[in-house]
Structures are given as structure tokens and as C-alpha cells.
């Protein structure tokens, strides 16, 4: 059944809604200009609002890939028109449809206002600086209609800019014109040395494309390939270049540098416009047409790179903001397990690249990834529980306008570079065992090794250093630095190890690889308050450590794998109101920490955003209210006017939700539990009321039952959610309980229903963040999947789901006795 493209909040076309909106629009927005641009919706289901902001009413929804006409942009919101509906959509959820540029302009004024229309009476939507270049879509009376670097349409006064052509383009914004001829006829020199490529330069749309990795590494840059986003991340000193295959908007330190021909993959190598490749790190490019020769002059030596990880990884649904601080708006959200390249760091925030956008994420909610070696986990097909109206199971109260639909596909990958016979290459690894630097030679050689104080110098005669030439790893407040240079026919590597830090050296690979390792160790131990009623112990290690935890009476035992005592004392006497003392013992495979308390009412263990601070949070027995340990609250999702998801055949989610919930409750009552429901018939109950019921009853657990939906009809399977963020102590202290409850139920659902296991996940759902007891939200099956829709109409399948949920709850309850 074909889905409708526009729907109102109750799923029907309402003349009243449209009428009210048309009245409102007289004061909120101007009509779309006659020459409105077009864009495509990128979110799976996107809210249309009556004005430019989340404080305006939702007047309908629109689906992914729908084309709309766009007008002015105000504060990150774009005016749109589709059929007889006019409204506003968040600008980052629209992808402008390309229009051919007739020519380009360069801003000649010190700065120029960009406006929403051709005239000073139109709103200012941005500013352009002197020298910036923009493609012109249309020349009007004294105004240019341009496409900005973010893809939006704007207008600039013609007297503030100058027309340019390819021959007059500034070097930084144009590609090298390629003459007619065969690709192999072009020679590329770097600092006078002829470069050789395993994939030769080629001509595309009149531009010369060259292998990016070969030239960047010859300049001393580190090059990483991200197959999940088809993106090349290159770093040299403090400069980071991000180029996505097929995009004409690469970035240099977060700033877009437009190119007219996108990068592409040819025979496993990334080829990109020569001018951009040569100048991205500050080099200079010259073209000699008579000899078909390109000469690149390297940039000055790179300064030390900033002390931040090359990537970060999310552990739960994470807000990505437009600036470095919570005062900035949420632009989008990253799912749990996403790995994002880091461009910069500022005041506890990381600037990251995602989907061609530059955004910011708090350092304390992500984990650093120092070497991109692990694969990126599969992303969810869609955000859970897409409702047909108010998006009931919102992932965050401040970001409900997009329900993302990431895709997975096989993409060509570049082979990792290995040292050739006469080459030396550097690599680094930061993992739970510590920091490891490897110096790999293309053949077994015996380098000259000199130790002077804390400096190790390796000299490889007749060898040449290739690729990465500088490594800087933080060791507390100090740095572990490794620098490599080529000096008169030899490669020289110098390692500076911080004073007082234990390190080891050894060889691998039959003598081809020299290894320097700083083993993981405890750097600091401290006690801090946790909320108003608890305390926590913070154990800081050099790198993120694996750990296990066992609670026995009033003691908590933590085992840290692959860790040495380092700077830790063997005993800390804190004498706190909850934590009395902590002792450490060195074992063969790590360190054991024993936390002696004055009584444990609740505890939880987690890691900081950097991953190297283990936080053990404990509250005393007096701080934990006594729950009714036999009472279970079951919450059938949606109801009444809130239908929930609707299948292609019209089957509403609220129906199986209620039937499964009532049957699960009947089974639990038969097992001797007291069960209460948030609804027992087809009535509407608000999200706040559902949580309040459970809190007033002081239940042992709260279980919300839902079914899933996606724009991808192939999506299928079971997933279960909990929520226990570290920045909410009253929830985080229940992390283990909430996760255990979710795991028990998920395991039983998968076992009994024999559907794909989509896993246990965290999400900021209203009923999970507002309940005081362990709570979970189950997504039993996908109504949007034809097979699972038929299963959900089967009484047998729904009974099996109810039995699985009841069994999972029962197993959890028994595990806590």
C-alpha cells in the first residue's frame, strides 16, 4: 500500500488545520518567492511546523525523498511548500536539488550580507567574507541568487562581488585545467621529485584527478579511510582535511572548500582534484602546459597536532550541536556505536564531521578512538517507535523533527599501506594495554639505537620514512612524542618518553618492526560526592581499561585487566559517609581494587567520556526508597487518539500493544505477582501520566510494550531499550538493574519469537527518563515489514510475545532476590 506524503497529526487531511495555518502564516511567513528553489527531504519522517522553530505547532509530516519548494531561511529553518501545505522544516533535514550555475562570483567587500531575497528589505540569513567564492544560479536586478557552502539559497548585492571565470579563479578555489590527452601522460613533481602512482592521474570533466593518499603522505600527512561514510580523513599538524567520495564540499579544519569535480574511487584508490590536493595543507601548485607537468611545492613543516583523538565513538543516542556548548541547538543525533572523525577540540567539546556536516559533541558523552581499527557497528534502520503523529517515543525532547534512516551498503575500500623494501613507516595504537608505537621497516635491518635520558633515537641507513611522521599521545599532563625525518639518505625516528613513566621496547616481525610500549597504569585515585546522597570513587588509568565488578555484602571488588599499580598507593582511607576505604593489589593479569563501604543501598559503575576514568558510584541504604518488590507496572504503548505506527494495510500499533500487555500481565499474575496497567482499553494516556502511575505505586519495575516501524520495509526484528545516563545520578545508579531487565526480556523475546536480535540499546524516551524504578521499552516487531505485520495479527505470535516478556520479567525479579 502506498504511503501518503503528507499527513496531519491525526493521520487525516484536516481542512481546519490547513485553514488555521493559512491564517497564522499571514503573520509568520511571507509567501514563497516566484522563483523558489527545490529541495528533497532527507529525514525518514519530518515534522512540518507552522513557524520557524520547535515552539510552533506541528501541522503535518512529510516523508523522505519528497521534493518540496523552498523559500526563505530563518534561524536554521526553511520555509517550504508542498501541494496545498505551506510550513517550515529544519534546514538540515533538506537537501537542495542542484541547479546549474551560470558563473561564479568572488566577494570583494570586507564582508557582505546574505539575504533571503533580492533586496535590503529581506532578512539577513548569513554573511560572506572577502575572497569567498559562490556559484551564481541567477542574476537579477543588482542582485545575485547564489548557492551557499551549506547548500542553501541566498542573495547578495552585485556591487559587493565580482564575476570570475575558471582562468581568474583564485588558486584555492579552482581545479587545475586538464589538457586533452591520456591520463598517463601527466607528470607530477613534489619538491622537484617525480611521484609515481599505482593508479595514474585521470581527466574528469576537464579536471585532473590524482591519487590523494600518495600525495598527502608524501607531504607527511596521515591518511585514514572510513568505509562506512566513504570519507578520507587526512591530518598534518593542526590541519585536518575531510573529503567524502562524490561530494564537491570537502572541508579544511571544518571550513568548506568547494570543488567543481568530486573525488571518486578508481581501482581501490581515492582520486581527487589536483589543485585541492596540492593546496589543502598549504602547498603551491603550478601547471606547465607545454610539458604537461604539475609541480607541487610542499607546505612549511607542520606544527604539533592538537592533543585530541582522531575519532570519537558514541555509546548511546548522542546530541550533536551547532556549537561548543549546551546553549547551542541540537542539529541532529548520532546513534549508539557511531564513530566520528574529530576536527578540533574546545573547552571540553569535540568538533566532529558527520555526513558532510561539521558539528560539536560533548567530550564526556563519547569515547576517544585513537586508532581506527575496529569496524563500525551496524546502525539501526530507524529510530525506535516512529509514531504516526506526535512521535510519542521521542529520543530527545529537543530533537523530534527527524527520524533518521541510515543505510548500510558495501563500498570499495583502499588497502592499508605497508612498508616497501626501503621504506620505514610509523603507526600507533592506544588500547586497554596502553600506548604502543610501531616502527616498521620494509626489510629486516639493525638500526642504530641511541638512548639519551628519556630520548630514544632509531636511525635506519638507506631507508626512507613514508606516511605518518609525527605522533603525540597525552600521558596525563605530559606528552609521549615520536618524530620522524629523512636526513641525507637515512630515516631517523626520535621518541621522547615522559620522565618517570615505565616503558618497554622489543622487536616483532622477525626484526622488521621495533616497538615502544607504555603499559596501562593507574594514574590517580580520588573520592567525590555523587549527587546529594552518595559518593563515588574515580580510578584514572592511562588508557581505557577492561574491568569486572563483584558486590559482596558491603564490599565492591573491581578487577582492572592489563593494568599496573603505577602511581596508585596500596590503600586509601577516605572515611566518607558511604565509602570508608579502597585497597589495591597487583595481580599477574592486572590490579584488583576493593571498595569497603558503610552499607550499599545502590551502586553503578561507568566510564567517563574519555573512557580512562572508571567511576564507581554508591549510595547508602538510607537514600534508597523501599520499592514494592512484588508490583509490576505494564504500559501498553499509545492508545485512543494516539494510534502509534500504522502498517501499510492500516493495522494500528496500539492494538497489538494492548493485547500483548494484557496477556503478559495475566501470566505474571498467575506467577504470583501484583500487576497494574497504565491502560486496559483503547484510551489515551499521556506519557507523563504513565510514568507518574508507576512512581505513585512505587513499583519494582516498569515495562512499556511497543511495536516498531520504518520507511525501509525490509527492517525487522526485536529491540529493547533502557535509559541510565551518567549525568542523571538517580537514573545512573540503576544502570545495572535497568540493563539487566532489558537483557532478560530481549533474550526471551528473541528465543521464543525467532526473529532477528537488534539488541539492547539506550534511548532518552519519556517513560524511561521519568520513572523512578528500573524501566524498559520493548519493540516486539516491525509493523512496516509485511512478514512481521502478519505475525502481529496472529494470536499465537502475540501470545508467544506476552509469554516471553513475562518470562524475562520473572527471571529478572528472581535474580534480584
Please name the CATH topology of the largest domain.
Aminopeptidase
The CATH class designation of the largest domain is: Alpha Beta
Number of domains: 7
Strand content: 35-45%
Report the CATH superfamily of the largest domain: Zn-dependent exopeptidases
Question: What Rg is obtained from the alpha carbons, in whole angstroms?
Answer: 30 Å
Q: Main beta sheet, described?
A: 6 strands, mixed
Mean pLDDT: 78
| Sheet/helix structural class | mainly beta
Oligomer: single chain
Summarize the amount of helix as a percent range. 10-25%
Numbering strands along the chain, what is their spatial order in the largest sheet?
Answer: 56-55-57-60-58-59
How far apart, in Å, are the first and last alpha carbons? Answer: 50 Å
Number of helices: 10
Runs in which pLDDT lies below 50 for 5 or more consecutive residues are 1-35, 166-184, 302-307, 371-416
Using the alpha-carbon principal axes, give the shape. Answer: globular
Query: From the 3D coordinates, which CATH architecture of the largest domain would you assign?
Result: 3-Layer(aba) Sandwich
Q: How many extended strands?
A: 60
Domain SH3b: 36-98, 102-164, 308-369
GO molecular function: N-acetylmuramoyl-L-alanine amidase activity
InterPro entries: Cu_amine_oxidase-like_N (IPR012854), Mao_N_sf (IPR036582), MurNAc-LAA_cat (IPR002508), N-acetylmuramoyl_amidase_3 (IPR050695), SH3-like_bac-type (IPR003646)
Biased composition (Basic and acidic residues): 372-381, 404-420
What's the short version?
By secondary structure, this protein is mostly beta strands. The chain has 10 helices and 60 strands.
Amino acid at each position: 500500500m502506498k504511503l501518503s506524503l503528507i499527513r496531519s497529526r491525526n493521520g487525516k487531511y484536516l481542512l481546519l488545520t490547513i485553514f488555521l495555518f493559512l491564517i497564522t502564516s499571514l503573520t509568520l511567513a511571507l509567501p514563497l518567492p516566484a522563483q523558489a528553489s527545490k529541495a528533497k527531504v532527507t529525514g525518514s519522517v519530518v515534522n512540518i511546523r507552522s513557524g520557524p522553530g520547535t515552539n510552533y505547532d506541528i501541522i503535518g509530516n512529510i516523508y523522505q525523498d519528497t521534493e518540496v519548494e523552498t523559500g526563505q531561511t530563518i534561524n536554521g529553518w526553511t520555509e517550504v511548500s508542498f501541494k496545498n501545505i505551506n510550513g517550515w522544516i529544519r534546514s538540515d533535514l533538506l537537501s537542495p536539488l542542484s541547479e546549474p550555475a551560470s558563473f561564479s562570483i568572488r566577494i570583494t567587500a570586507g564582508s557582505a550580507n546574505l539575504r533571503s531575497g533580492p533586496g535590503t528589505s529581506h532578512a539577513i540569513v548569513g554573511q560572506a567574507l572577502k575572497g569567498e567564492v559562490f556559484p551564481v544560479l541567477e542574476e537579477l536586478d543588482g542582485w545575485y541568487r547564489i548557492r551557499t557552502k551549506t547548500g542553501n539559497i541566498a542573495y547578495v548585492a552585485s556591487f559587493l562581488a565580482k564575476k570570475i571565470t575558471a582562468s581568474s579563479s583564485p588558486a584555492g578555489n579552482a581545479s587545475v585545467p586538464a589538457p586533452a590527452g591520456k591520463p598517463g601522460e601527466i607528470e607530477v613533481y613534489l619538491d622537484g621529485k617525480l611521484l609515481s602512482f599505482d593508479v595514474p592521474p585521470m581527466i574528469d570533466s576537464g579536471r585532473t584527478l590524482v591519487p590523494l593518499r600518495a600525495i598527502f603522505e608524501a607531504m607527511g600527512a596521515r591518511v585514514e579511510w572510513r568505509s562506512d561514510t566513504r570519507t578520507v580523513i587526512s591530518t598534518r599538524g593542526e590541519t585536518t582535511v575531510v573529503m567524502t567520495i562524490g561530494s564537491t564540499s570537502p572541508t579544511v579544519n571544518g571550513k568548506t572548500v568547494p570543488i567543481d569535480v568530486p573525488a571518486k574511487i578508481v581501482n581501490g584508490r581515492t582520486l581527487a582534484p589536483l589543485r585541492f590536493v596540492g593546496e589543502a595543507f598549504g602547498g603551491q601548485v603550478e601547471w606547465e602546459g607545454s610539458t604537461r607537468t604539475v609541480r607541487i611545492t610542499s607546505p612549511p613543516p607542520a606544527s604539533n597536532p592538537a592533543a585530541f583523538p582522531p575519532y570519537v565513538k558514541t555509546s548511546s543516542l548522542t546530541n550533536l550541536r551547532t556549537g561548543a556548548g549546551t546553549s547551542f541547538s541540537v542539529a541532529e543525533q548520532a546513534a549508539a556505536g557511531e564513530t566520528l572523525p574529530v576536527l578540533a577540540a574546545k573547552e571540553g567539546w569535540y568538533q566532529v564531521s558527520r555526513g558532510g556536516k561539521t558539528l560539536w559533541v560533548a567530550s564526556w558523552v563519547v569515547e576517544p578512538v585513537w586508532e581506527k581499527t575496529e569496524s563500525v557497528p551496524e546502525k539501526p534502520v530507524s529510530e525506535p517507535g516512529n509514531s504516526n503523529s506526535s512521535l510519542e517515543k521521542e529520543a530527545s525532547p529537543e530533537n523530534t523533527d527527524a527520524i533518521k534512516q541510515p543505510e548500510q551498503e558495501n563500498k570499495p575500500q583502499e588497502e592499508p599501506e605497508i612498508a616497501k623494501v626501503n621504506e620505514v613507516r610509523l603507526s600507533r595504537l592506544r588500547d586497554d594495554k596502553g600506548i604502543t608505537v610501531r616502527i616498521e621497516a620494509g626489510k629486516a635491518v639493525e638500526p642504530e639505537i641511541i638512548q639519551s635520558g628519556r630520548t630514544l633515537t632509531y636511525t635506519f641507513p638507506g631507508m626512507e620514512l613514508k606516511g605518518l611522521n609525527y605522533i603525540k599521545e597525552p600521558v596525563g599532563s605530559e606528552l609521549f612524542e615520536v618524530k620522524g625525518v629523512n636526513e641525507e639518505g637515512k630515516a631517523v625516528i626520535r621518541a621522547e618518553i615522559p620522565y618517570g613513566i615505565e616503558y618497554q621496547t622489543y622487536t616483532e616481525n622477525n626484526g622488521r618492526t621495533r616497538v615502544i610500549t607504555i603499559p596501562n597504569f593507574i594514574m590517580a585515585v580520588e573520592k567525590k560526592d555523587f549527587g546529594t546522597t552518595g559518593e563515588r570513587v574515580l580510578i584514572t588509568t592511562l588508557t581505557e581499561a577492561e574491568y569486572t565488578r563483584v558486590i559482596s555484602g558491603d564490599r565492591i571488588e573491581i578487577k582492572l585487566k592489563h593494568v599496573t599499580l603505577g602511581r596508585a598507593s596500596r590503600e586509601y582511607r577516605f572515611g566518607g559517609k558511604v565509602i570508608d576505604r579502597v585497597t589495591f593489589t597487583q595481580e599477574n593479569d592486572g590490579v584488583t581494587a576493593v571498595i569497603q563501604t558503610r552499607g550499599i543501598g545502590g551502586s553503578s559503575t561507568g566510564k567517563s567520556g574519555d573512557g580512562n576514568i572508571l567511576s564507581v558510584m554508591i549510595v547508602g541504604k538510607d537514600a534508597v526508597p523501599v520499592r514494592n518488590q512484588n508490583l509490576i507496572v505494564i504500559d501498553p504503548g499509545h492508545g485512543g487518539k494516539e494510534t502509534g505506527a500504522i502498517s501499510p494495510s492500516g493495522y494500528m500499533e496500539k492494538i497489538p500493544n494492548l493485547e500483548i500487555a494484557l496477556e503478559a500481565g495475566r501470566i505474571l499474575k498467575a506467577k504470583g505477582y501484583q500487576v497494574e496497567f497504565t491502560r486496559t482499553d483503547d484510551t489515551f494516556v499521556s506519557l507523563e501520566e504513565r510514568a507518574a502511575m508507576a512512581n505513585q505505586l512505587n513499583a519494582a519495575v516498569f515495562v512499556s510494550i511497543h511495536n516498531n516501524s520504518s520507511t525501509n520495509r525490509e527492517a525487522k526484528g526485536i529491540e529493547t531499550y533502557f535509559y541510565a545516563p551518567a549525568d542523571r545520578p538517580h537514573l545512573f545508579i540503576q544502570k545495572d538493574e535497568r540493563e539487566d531487565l532489558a537483557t532478560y526480556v530481549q533474550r526471551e523475546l528473541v528465543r521464543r519469537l525467532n526473529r532477528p536480535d537488534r539488541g539492547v540499546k539506550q534511548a532518552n524516551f519519556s517513560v524511561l527518563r521519568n520513572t523512578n524504578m528500573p524501566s524498559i521499552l520493548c519493540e516486539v516487531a516491525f509493523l512496516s515489514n509485511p512478514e512481521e505485520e502478519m505475525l502481529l495479527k496472529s494470536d499465537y505470535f502475540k501470545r508467544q510475545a506476552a509469554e516471553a516478556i513475562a518470562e524475562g520479567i520473572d527471571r529478572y525479579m528472581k535474580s534480584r532476590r
